Amino acid sequence: SEAGGPCDEEDPCIMLRDILGRFHGDGSLKAFACVDAAQVPAPYHGILVNEEHLTKTLMDRHGTIDVRVVEVQRGEGGVYARRIYLANSESKLVAHAILIAYLDRLPAPVKKGVLEEGIPFGKLLMDHVKERCVRLKAFWRVDQSLGDEGGFGVGTDHESEASRMTYGRTVVIDCDGVAAAEVLEVLPREYLDAAAGR
After folding, report:
1. What is the pTM of this model?
2. Do the beta carbons of residue 153 and residue 29 sit within 8 Å?
3. What is the mean pLDDT of residues 184-195?
4. Three-class SS of residue 41?
5. Is there a contact between 78 and 110 (Cβ–Cβ < 8 Å)?
6. Which of 18, 13, 190, 176 is nearest to 99 (CA)?
7. Residue 151 has pLDDT above 70, yes or no
8. pLDDT for res 197
9. How crowded is the C-beta side of 91, counted as CA atoms within 13 Å?
10. Cis upstream peptide for 43 (omega within 30°)
11. Long-range contacts at 4-13 (CB < 8 A, ≥ 24 apart)
């Protein structure tokens, strides 16, 4: 997307490329395959296939959620991007995400919280924005063995094709009727392993 606002293109790969490109090379794109909602298996389906903030869904499952900022980029026009991990109270990774926020479209308390980098974006919105909307753009099957090292669990040895796969989504978040952020959210493989008793 342009510096002035979120991607309005219909092709979900354009939005994904824009988000990934903030922190990863083009090689990371090959790790992502667009899938229909019906192709997202449990337990990922229950976490991703809804119009709720991922932070809220994870808080319902795990209680307190902490944000760990890995990298930050600040661009022209009030564009703020960060790559983060979300962790539960036991410091266990529960999500990996890239947020692109358009700061001039956010209420002052949310903008302040984003820049302080201590509270998950979804929690800030829940606390400060009454009119908010999570718009689902695409669901992704993610092969963790492909792409750039250091991103979304890639670069790790996996025994089989099935053990490499996890799932994520891209969303646009509206605040007070204005598109204010784009987010790529990817869940760790451990959700499926835990559901299977592994």
Report:
1. 0.85
2. no
3. 76
4. coil
5. no
6. 18
7. no
8. 45
9. 0
10. yes
11. 4/77, 5/102, 5/105, 5/179, 6/100, 6/102, 6/172, 6/179, 6/180, 6/181, 6/182, 7/172, 7/182, 12/137, 12/138, 12/170
- Which conformational region is residue 150 in: left (phi greater than 0), alpha (psi within -120 to 50 degrees), or beta? left
pLDDT in tens, 115-129: 999 999 999 999 998
Above pLDDT 90, what percent of the chain?
A: 54
- CA dist 37 and 169 (Å) reads 10
Terminal-to-terminal C-alpha distance of the chain:
40
Measure the CA–CA gap between 66 and 75, rounded to whole angstroms: 25
> Does residue 39 have a pLDDT over 80?
yes
Let me know: does 102 contact 6? Beta carbons within 8 Å: yes
Please name the amino acid found at residue 64. Answer: T
Vertex 82, ends 26 and 123: CA angle to 5°? 135
What Å distances lie between residue 107 and 8, 45, 55, CA to CA? 22, 31, 19
CB 186 within 8 A of CB 152: yes
**Mean per-residue pLDDT for 145-164?**
54
